[in-house]
Structures are given as C-alpha cells and as structure tokens.
Amino acid sequence: MRQKLIRLSLVLAALSLIYFFQKHGKTLIASIVDLPLYFHVLLLVNLGIWCWASNVHILSLTGIDAYSILDDESKYASPDIETPTRREGGSSGGRPGWSYNNVYGLACGFTVATVVSLWLFFHMMDLYGEEGAEFVPGLTYAAFVVLTVWPWNFFFRSERARFLGTCSRIAFGGIRSDVPFSDIILADILTSFSRVLGDLQPIFYDLALDGSLSDALPIGGNRDTSKHATIEHSYGTIWQTISPLLICLPFLFRLRQCIAEYNLSTDLPARKRHMANAIKYLSSLPVIMSSFAINYLRIHGERSGNTIDPINFEQTLNRAVGVWIIFSIINSLYSLYWDIAIDWSLLTPHKTLTSRTLLRLSWTLKVALLYALVRATVYRDPMPGS
C-alpha cells in the first residue's frame, strides 16, 4: 500500500510540474534551467535522495546485503574483504535504517514538498514579484531542516536518525576514530555535492539577509554591488570566505577519514593506500582556494572601477588564473591515476586471466579511462558564480 502511494504521489508531482511549465510556454528542461538558485539546490537534494534509494534497491535486487555493508560497525571499506550477500529470508528493503522502501518514501515526501513550493512560488511571483515570493523557498528550506532533525517517530525516523548519526561522525570524528564504510560512502557523496554546499552561502544571503542572488554571487554580468558591499561591511571580509569553506568541508572530511584509517591500519600496503588517498583529497583544496582568489579579485576589480591600475590588476589576475590551472592539472592527473591504478587496480597484472578475459578487460579499461578522465576534469572550473 505504501509503495502504491509513493508511486501515485510521484506521478502526480511529475505531471503537475510538466503541466505548470508547459502552461508558461517553456519546456521542462528550459524551465528547470531558468529556476532561481535556491530551487536548483532543492532539486539536486531531491535527486540525491532518489539516487541513494535506487542504489540500495539495486544492491538488494542483486543479492548484496546492503544493511551489512552500510552498518555503522561495518569494515567493508577494504577491497580485500568479501562483500556479504543477503542472508536467506533477509532483505535490505525491510531492515531498519537502510530500507530502500523508506528512503523512497523520504524522497517522495521531499519531492512533493518541493513541487508544492514551486507552485506556490510562481503563483506568489505572479502577484508580488520574485522578491515578494521568496518567503516560499525560505519556508521550504526551514521545513526540510525541521523534517530532517525531527526527533520523534515521524516521517521515517530510522533513516533520518542513521543519516544524522553518520553526518555527526563524519563532521566530528578524530584522526584515530573508527571509520565505518557508511561514513566513507556519505562523505564521498558530499564531495560530489560540494558545489551545492557552496551555493548555500548566496542562498542564505538572498533569503535571510534581504539580498539578491545576482549581488551575492562572486561574479556574473552587470549588477548593483551596493547591497553586497553593505553585507560585507556589516559582517567583515570573512563573509566572502564562507562559500569556499563550505565547498572545502567534504574534502576535509574525507581527508580526516583517510588519516584516521592510516593511523588505525597495521598493514603497510593499506597504510600507503590510505595516505595516497589522503593526498588526493588534499590536492583538491588549492584548486578551490585559487578559484576563490580569482573570483575575489574579479569582484573587487569591478567594484573599484577606475581607482586601480588596470595593468597591475590584469597581471595579478593572470597569475591567479595560472596558479589555478597548475593546481587543477595536478589534482586532475593525480585523481585519474588514483582511480585507474589504485582504486580500481586496472593496471595490476593478473597471471590467471585468459586471453578472452584480457580482451574484455581492455574494453573495460578504455571505458574506465574515459569515465575517470571526465570525472577528474568536469568540475575543475572556478567556483559557483563564475
């Protein structure tokens, strides 16, 4: 019965979105692209929950015991440990905390809330303009936070409690703390959402400080910077560092986890692997900070106008771009090497492989190389707003 309600709610939400956007004379994709930044983040969060539910569901369908792998005490992060299969009569779809049915329910609930928020936002925007309608996404963000941390037995408490517990260990663990595999998975997911975390700074500025997203973003088009200057004067230059710090957080979390695994491991090859992994995440930080420096120089150059020497400014900006390019190349090449040689062990020879298996693996290697190359380079552009 619950699955039928989830499917029905999802279908109704999708049909409502399509009808609403078509009514305004735009395709669904074009309408989503034109949405304000705060709705982009909400939609990406929804997509992440749906993808997580699908992952756990697929693991269950293939006979892998997702509950055992993702349990808080699980140590299945090592590639040398056999992946557990589902025990007879057991199902990760019904186990508390990692039930894919319940995660689907969470995704459906957040999606319906987002669709309702979109409908109310556009309705209020037609009446009062965009600034007059911004209280709708503000209330939506507040509702999402309340639903996530709600302590009582409501709205899939087991899944929410496990998520919050994992987040707590990721954020506050030490360099000698145990690192369950579930913590590694979530921290890796957060690195993919690092740009989304960085977007929370301009969103907060827009919704809570009565600003404008076009003013809050580091660069982008012609805009009035007086509001941004007022905020900067009120909160200090530290305000401008919030976004890059938020982007850095997931990489710092993974760096701490790698150091903890290095300290706790007694096997020399495993220690080398964890240290190499830590270097990969450490190499991401200069890329983020140098891209922040580029945007910082640009926005202050635009604001200063004719009061600065354009030649010196251009030289300084070019040096910052050069530093960013160097760090980006280093991080991309190292990440590519890590994925191919260390994480996937595709360059390690295996004496027991037949010629037919080697032929299949050669195609696998080509596809993996292409995927790793795209993964290592696709997000190397400067920070949000560039």
UniProtKB/TrEMBL annotation:
Q: Which key words tag this protein in UniProt?
A: Membrane, Transmembrane, Transmembrane helix
- Look up and give the membrane topology term: Multi-pass membrane protein
The membrane-spanning stretches of this chain are 35-53, 103-123, 135-156, 317-337, 358-378
Q: Does the keyword Membrane apply?
A: yes
Q: Which InterPro entries match?
A: EXS_C (IPR004342)
* Residue ranges of every copy of the EXS domain listed in the record: 234-386
Q: What is its main location?
A: membrane
Top-rank taxon of the source lineage equals Eukaryota
| PROSITE patterns assigned | EXS (PS51380)
Protein's cellular compartments: Membrane
Of the GO CC terms on this record, one is: membrane
Pfam families registered for this protein in UniProt: EXS
Instruction: Supply the PANTHER family for this chain.
Output: PROTEIN ERD1 HOMOLOG 2, XENOTROPIC AND POLYTROPIC RETROVIRUS RECEPTOR 1-RELATED
Protein name in UniProt: EXS domain-containing protein
Origin organism is Rhizophlyctis rosea
